[in-house]
Design brief:
The protein has 17 helices and no strands. The protein is an all-alpha fold.
Length: 399
């Protein structure tokens, strides 16, 4: 019995070390500055007199910039340490928030938002590379799950606090507070001690893989489809819920966030007890069932219940899929992580666009059924292509 209990303690000791905690704090502080702008940036731009079209462009630019910069960040990580790249991204974030207090016209603000997208690509990619490279292979899924608590916590805390700052103080105070949080991320990164990933993979540069790691593309498509669906849910579920008579659709996301944080904080035993393939197939099928339930949801209780199930599923599915993709590629280099995260970002960006076009032809209920079938297609893709290709590759290596 004592031997069984020592395994979780040993894995926690291997994960929650000095560098992991500092990396987590840097990640949380940095993401809090970005999520603080979710409800406040449109209000600030409206106050400046920006048109709705300009507001849409300025809000969306950070995602486009981050997507465009991620592959280049992967290449930069071949030459410079993750610690340096994290500090550089935090420095860009500090200057961007200070620039918000100076510039008020569209074109300068567009440049500021692009800089924020570049800083997001730097910090997000470099922290993942640094943390994942330091994790033991047996704890990789669990460690990624713990690390991804940072965006959940940031999303749960920062937006409401940002509204408080704007209501009781001013937008300038909010921007200065965000710049201070970026400085905290810089200091946490500065205190990192580990080496991060090994630069022995530098030979990949000669093969042209500095910007993209093609070995991770096959499993990354599965991650793309997951984020595609999640992006569509973020964009259209609130409108659908209101049409179904739900007064506060935000409770769906609150319920999801609670289960995501609970699953990632307490789900270490699940990640250790089952294989990655089994977990991916199980939670992908569960996600398809949950999406189909939205077709029938009418009451607030139904939407909260579906939100709880959805959050419980993706709390395991997303980190396990990421861990499997890195194992599949046989690398956790900057190019590998940058490629994986860029493909996921692409899904998050395309989901609302494609489903928005589909809505004009079908309707919300049919759209959620389509998303359910897309999850089932993702399960078949993983089972009959990704998994078999991975098994065949392992057999070749063993021979």
């Amino acid at each position: 019995m004592q031997k069984e209990e020592s395994v979780p303690r040993l894995s926690l000791r291997n994960i929650l070390n000095h560098d992991f905690i500092l990396g987590f704090l840097a990640y949380f502080a940095f993401l809090a500055t970005n999520t603080a702008l979710y409800p406040t940036l449109p209000l600030y731009l409206e106050q400046l007199g920006s048109s709705e079209k300009q507001i849409g462009i300025l809000v969306g630019t950070i995602g486009v910039a981050s997507l465009a910069c991620r592959p280049f960040v992967g290449g930069i990580l071949f030459r410079y340490s993750e610690k340096v790249v994290i500090m550089a991204g935090a420095t860009l974030s500090i200057f961007a928030f200070l620039a918000f207090t100076v510039f008020h016209r569209f074109w300068p603000l567009l440049i500021v938002r692009f800089v924020q997208g570049a800083s997001l690509a730097c910090v997000d990619t470099a922290i993942f590379v640094f943390i994942v490279s330091a994790l033991p292979l047996t704890c990789r899924g669990q460690g990624i799950s713990y690390l991804m608590l940072a965006p959940s916590l940031a999303t749960a805390i920062a937006p409401s606090l940002s509204i408080y700052f704007v209501s009781h103080y001013s937008f300038v105070i909010l921007f200065l507070a965000c710049a201070s949080l970026s400085a905290c991320a810089f200091l946490c990164a500065w205190r990192l001690k580990g080496r991060g990933s090994k630069k022995s993979e530098i030979g990949d540069l000669a093969r042209g893989n500095a910007l993209l790691e093609w070995n991770v593309v096959v499993p990354a498509i599965s991650s793309f489809l997951q984020y595609f669906v999640w992006g569509a849910i973020i964009a259209f579920l609130p409108i659908y819920a209101v049409q179904r008579g739900v007064a506060n659709p935000g409770l769906f996301f609150s319920a999801s966030a609670i289960m995501i944080m609970a699953g990632r904080a307490l789900g270490g035993r699940v990640l250790r007890s089952f294989s990655q393939e089994r977990l991916i197939l199980t939670f992908t099928f569960t996600g398809a069932a949950v999406l189909a339930m939205l077709f029938f949801a009418k009451s607030l209780f139904a939407f909260i219940f579906v939100g709880l199930l959805w959050g419980a599923g993706i709390s395991f599915l997303i980190p396990v899929t990421m861990a499997y993709a890195l194992d599949y590629a046989g690398s956790s280099s900057g190019a590998t992580v940058g490629t994986l995260r860029a493909i996921s970002d692409l899904g998050l960006a395309l989901g609302p666009i494609v489903m928005g076009m589909l809505l004009s032809l079908t309707g919300y209920r049919a759209m959620f059924l389509c998303l359910s079938f897309l999850y089932l297609a993702n399960m078949c893709y993983f089972q009959f292509y990704v998994r078999k290709k991975h098994d065949a590759h392992q057999k070749i290596e063993a021979a």
